[in-house]
Specification:
Length: 281
């Protein structure tokens, strides 16, 4: 609050700054408002207190798929990128960091957290692996985060990441080297975003051919280029497409219920499929 000698009693003063004379009054409450406390409204001027009260009671603006329309940076996307980058640095400087968190079918049963943690690791042989994944995440992530909202986008990304590891588990053979080969990378999660954005674009009636071309090229590369875990790509893609469809086509009045339900069902399904796969070994 400002200090100083208050003006005469009959002079209109700002309630928040009693030492400031103001002949401009708020259009809502009628109180005087000094220049610092004035906020331009559609008609006239409102004080900061009325603007704050209106903001608390106003329902948030929603996107076409029910996400809260926000201004500013896509914090969830940035957070995932930051975790991947920090983990990549740790892979370079902390001995055993990669082997501690990477996923391989033979160890996933006793250390199930690896189904997820592997998605925050990348090949240490160069920067291209993490670079490609982070560029793809930055290209698609902000759009999906904005359309779906932070919670559903985070669930989509994390479950797609787990789905990538489950894909590796399902398509690996206990009698082959693939059962003991560690896999790392955010590719499963990124392919989940590809699957989801494809569904979202079709739901909104927008051109999805560009995503189809990118998706097709990446699928082909997974089978042609050595060292790419295409199984994780397929697993993440399937999870992302299914969740994306559930989020995008949920009835408007039941989006929250469908979103929570679809997320929970997918999580349970991934656990159940993994358990049955290990029981069959």
């Amino acid at each position: 609050m400002s200090t100083g000698t208050p003006p005469p009693v009959d002079t209109p003063v700002c309630p928040r700054h009693p030492d400031r004379v103001s002949y401009v009054r708020c259009q809502r409450c009628g109180r005087p408002a000094c220049p610092e406390c004035q906020r331009q409204a559609a008609v006239g001027v409102q004080c900061v207190d009325c603007v704050a009260a209106a903001a608390r009671t106003q329902r948030p603006t929603r996107t076409a798929l029910g996400g809260t329309l926000r201004q500013g940076r896509p914090v969830v996307t940035i957070t995932f990128i930051a975790i991947c980058v920090a983990s990549f640095v740790a892979q370079q400087v902390v001995p055993g960091w990669t082997s501690r968190w990477a996923f391989a079918p033979f160890i996933g049963e006793v250390e199930p957290w690896r189904f997820l943690t592997a998605a925050f690791l990348h090949s240490t042989g160069g920067v291209f692996h993490i670079l490609f994944n982070m560029v793809a995440l930055w290209m698609i992530g902000p759009y999906l985060e904005g359309m779906l909202g932070r919670a559903r986008f985070a669930a989509l990304y994390l479950l797609s990441a787990i789905g990538g590891s489950v894909g590796v588990l399902l398509l690996a053979s206990p009698d082959a080297l693939s059962w003991y080969t560690g896999v790392v990378g955010a590719s499963g999660a990124v392919f989940g975003l590809f699957g989801a954005v494809l569904v979202v674009l079709r739901r909104l009636g927008r051109d999805a051919r560009g995503i189809l071309v990118i998706l097709a090229l990446n699928v082909v590369m997974g089978f042609v280029v050595q060292g790419i875990a295409w199984q994780a790509h397929l697993g993440g893609l399937a999870v992302g497409a299914i969740l994306g469809a559930a989020y995008a086509y949920a009835p408007r009045d039941h989006r929250r219920t469908v979103g929570i339900g679809a997320t929970a069902v997918m999580a349970v399904l991934l656990v159940l499929v993994s358990v049955l796969r290990y029981m069959a070994v």
